[in-house]
């Protein structure tokens, strides 16, 4: 009789406490699994973002190379011809890893040179042209144009990345 | 189907007046002794049914089985100590008092012959009388005579009963006596019978529950470890949302940048082909802050070059026809100067460029294949000439 009673008591206790503990743990497991999925998702998203950042760096120029004379040298312009200048301030206000300048290349040039520079800007890293104008402006006073030359304006964005910014 | 005594107990021991009859499992012949302890051992007692016949007291109350089994000749009572000893000796051996048997069916008499007694019970009561191996047949006949002719008799015994065949008595083995629960005095209750099983099952259930919860705890620990590991491996730092926006913005702005030279050249070619007297032209993204999906090509005519729409419209049509990138053309309001604007859908231009490049690649492949076959043909004709020259020399 004692054994039966003790046995029943153990069974009842086990079912009540064990059942409660089992359901509680099952809920916790479900929560943890959801949390794990979320963390894995965040990790994947972070890795994808890093990969995109590495790719976009290849299409940008490094901080320090965004200098007027460096760019003019690369494009083979300047000195009485097409001139490069930045418009306004760059977009880098908070020390972001990526920022951009707005630039304008203007000056006298013939159509062939316009096409050469435009072609270069369409392939060099960092440059994105949004306006090309041929003969839109008048030359300055005392500025003489050669045969076939017109005032040319090219405007666009120059994208820069800062390798010292820790992501 | 009713359970029999033999099905309930493997070993049976019947306690008579002065001797006992023991039926062991698998044994054909019974054993006789003075005391049931003489014919049983520890092992046989585990599956033993101890049958005795304790008539009721004069007051009609049943007898204490331990007292009945302990009392000896000449004893009127049994003291408590002897009772306790008897209980301890008997232990959990099932005790069956056949004097508590349920009455038989009407017109039926059951007779049991074991040890040194004849026990029979009918519809009304049960009776016990001493007998011997020599006299039991005669005693049976006496019993039979006491009942009407129509009575059905069932005899349970392992003694030699051939001489009873002439009588209308059915003879069965002792083990075939129907089992009556009323006779089992110390039948274990459900709790006693399954107490150990219940306890064992409860321990198993508790262990299983413990194991299950342990496994869950282990799973929780594993998951926590995995979460920590993944979090440690996740790149951190900075504002990922802002970085994603910056990257997205740059990707969108630079997506079609490779088309700009084509658009400029196309505008120039269209102006030249349509022989428009143009002063200037411009290709631009109308809203530079937005991704360039639509571009606008504007062409300003020289002042005074065109007077009225009759002159302007043909120019506009030629311009549109000679451009490969413009999809529409319009004349915007311009009071001082004739101006035309062409709409450029960059997506469709990109598709055309891709198709053109695919065609170029295909042509290039075909040219390579053609050149290869031409070379093979030349080599083959060269070898033929050499062979002809050699044959001519030999001749």
Overview of the molecule:
The complex is a heterodimer of chains A (167) and B (395). Chain A is built from 3 helices and 5 strands. In chain A, strands 1, 2, 3, 4 and 5 form a 5-stranded mixed sheet that branches. Chain A is rod-shaped and about 120 Å long. In chain B, the strands form 3 sheets. A 5-stranded mixed sheet of chain B has the order 3-2-1-4-5. Chain B has a 5-stranded mixed sheet with strand order 8-7-6-9-10, covered by helices on one side. The mean pLDDT of chain B is 87. With 395 residues, chain B is of the alpha/beta class. In chain B, 44% of the residues lie in helices and 19% in strands.
Strands, helices and their partners?
The complex is a heterodimer of chains A (167) and B (395).
Chain A: H1 2-58, E1 61-62, H2 68-75, E2 83-87, E3 98-109, H3 111-121, E4 127-134, E5 150-161
Parallel strand pairs in A: 1-5
Antiparallel strand pairs in A: 2-3, 3-5, 4-5
Chain B: H1 5-8, E1 11-15, E2 20-23, E3 31-33, H2 36-39, H3 42-45, E4 48-52, H4 65-70, H5 80-90, E5 95-97, E6 108-114, E7 117-121, E8 126-130, H6 136-145, E9 152-156, E10 169-172, H7 190-233, H8 240-254, H9 260-273, E11 278-285, E12 294-301, H10 309-322, E13 326-330, E14 339-345, H11 346-394
Parallel strand pairs in B: 1-4, 4-5, 6-9, 9-10
Antiparallel strand pairs in B: 1-2, 2-3, 6-7, 7-8, 11-12, 12-14, 13-14
Helix pairs in contact in B: 9-10
Any descriptors?
heterodimer, A: 167 residues, alpha+beta, 5-stranded mixed beta sheet, 3 helices, 46% helix, B: 395 residues, alpha/beta, 44% helix, 19% strand
Summarize the structure.
Chain A has 167 residues and is α+β, with helices and mostly antiparallel strands. Helices cover 46% and strands 23% of the residues of chain A.
Helix content of chain A: 40-55%
Based on secondary structure, the structural category of chain A is alpha+beta
Instruction: Report the end-to-end length of chain B measured between terminal Cα atoms.
Output: 122 Å
How many individual helices of chain A? Answer: 3
* Shape, principal axes of CA atoms of chain A: rod-shaped
Helices and strands of chain B: which structural class? alpha/beta
Gap between N and C termini of chain A, in Å? 72 Å
What does the main sheet of chain B amount to? Answer: 5 strands, mixed
What overall geometry of chain B do the principal axes of the alpha carbons give? rod-shaped
Mean pLDDT of chain B: 87
- Tally of separate helices of chain B: 11
Question: Which regions of chain B have little confidence, pLDDT < 50, spanning 5+ residues?
Answer: none
Biggest chain pair interface: A-B, 69 and 64 residues
Q: Report strand order across the widest sheet of chain B.
A: 3-2-1-4-5
Order of helices and strands of chain B: HEEEHHEHHEEEEHEEHHHEEHEEH
How many E strands of chain B?
14
Average pLDDT rating of chain A: 90
């Amino acid at each position: 009789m004692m054994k039966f009673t003790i046995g029943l008591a153990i069974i009842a206790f086990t079912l009540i406490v064990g059942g409660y503990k089992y359901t509680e743990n099952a809920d916790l497991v479900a929560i943890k699994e959801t949390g794990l999925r979320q963390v894995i998702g965040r990790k994947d998203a972070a890795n994808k973002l890093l990969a995109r950042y590495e790719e976009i760096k290849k299409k940008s120029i490094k901080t320090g190379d965004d200098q007027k004379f460096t760019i003019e040298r690369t494009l083979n312009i300047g000195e009485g011809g097409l001139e490069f200048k930045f418009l306004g301030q760059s977009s880098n206000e908070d020390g972001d890893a990526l920022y951009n300048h707005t630039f304008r290349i203007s000056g006298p040039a013939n159509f062939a040179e316009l096409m050469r520079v435009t072609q270069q800007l369409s392939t060099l890293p960092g440059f994105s042209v949004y306006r090309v104008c041929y003969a839109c402006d008048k030359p300055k006073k005392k500025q003489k144009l050669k045969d076939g030359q017109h005032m040319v304006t090219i405007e666009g964005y120059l994208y820069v990345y800062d390798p010292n910014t820790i992501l | 189907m009713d359970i029999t005594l033999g099905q309930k107990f493997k070993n049976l021991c019947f306690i008579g007046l002065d001797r006992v009859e023991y039926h062991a499992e698998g044994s054909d012949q019974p054993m006789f002794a003075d005391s049931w302890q003489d014919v049983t051992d520890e092992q046989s007692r585990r599956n033993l049914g101890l049958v005795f016949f304790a008539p009721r007291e004069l007051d009609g109350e049943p007898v204490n089985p331990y007292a009945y089994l302990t009392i000896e000749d000449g004893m009127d009572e049994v003291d408590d100590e002897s009772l306790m000893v008897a209980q301890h000796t008997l232990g959990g051996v099932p005790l069956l008092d056949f004097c508590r048997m349920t009455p038989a069916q009407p017109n039926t008499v059951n007779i049991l012959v074991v040890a040194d007694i004849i026990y029979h019970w009918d519809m009304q009561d049960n009776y016990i009388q001493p007998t011997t191996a020599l006299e039991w047949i005669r005693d049976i006949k006496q019993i039979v005579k006491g009942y009407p002719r129509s009575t059905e008799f069932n005899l349970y015994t392992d003694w030699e009963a051939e001489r009873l065949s002439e009588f209308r008595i059915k003879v069965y083995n002792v083990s075939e006596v129907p089992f009556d629960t009323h006779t089992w005095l110390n039948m274990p209750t459900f709790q006693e019978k399954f107490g150990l099983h219940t306890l064992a099952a409860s321990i198993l259930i508790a262990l299983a529950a413990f194991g299950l919860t342990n496994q869950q705890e282990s799973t929780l620990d594993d998951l926590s470890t995995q979460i920590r590991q993944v979090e440690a491996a996740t790149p951190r730092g900075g504002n990922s949302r802002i970085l994603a926006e910056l990257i997205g913005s740059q990707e969108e702005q630079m997506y079609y940048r490779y088309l700009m030279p084509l658009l400029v050249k196309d505008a120039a070619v269209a102006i030249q082909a349509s022989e428009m007297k143009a002063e200037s032209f411009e290709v631009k993204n109308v809203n530079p802050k937005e991704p360039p999906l639509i571009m606008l090509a504007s062409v300003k005519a020289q002042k005074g070059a065109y007077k009225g729409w009759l002159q302007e419209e043909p120019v506009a049509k030629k311009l549109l026809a000679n451009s490969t990138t413009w999809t529409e053309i319009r004349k915007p309001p311009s009071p001082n100067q004739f101006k035309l604007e062409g709409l450029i859908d960059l997506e469709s231009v990109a598709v055309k460029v891709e198709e053109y490049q695919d065609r170029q690649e295909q042509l290039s492949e075909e040219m390579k294949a053609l050149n290869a076959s031409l070379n093979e043909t030349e080599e083959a004709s060269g070898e033929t000439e050499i062979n002809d020259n050699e044959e001519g020399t030999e001749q």
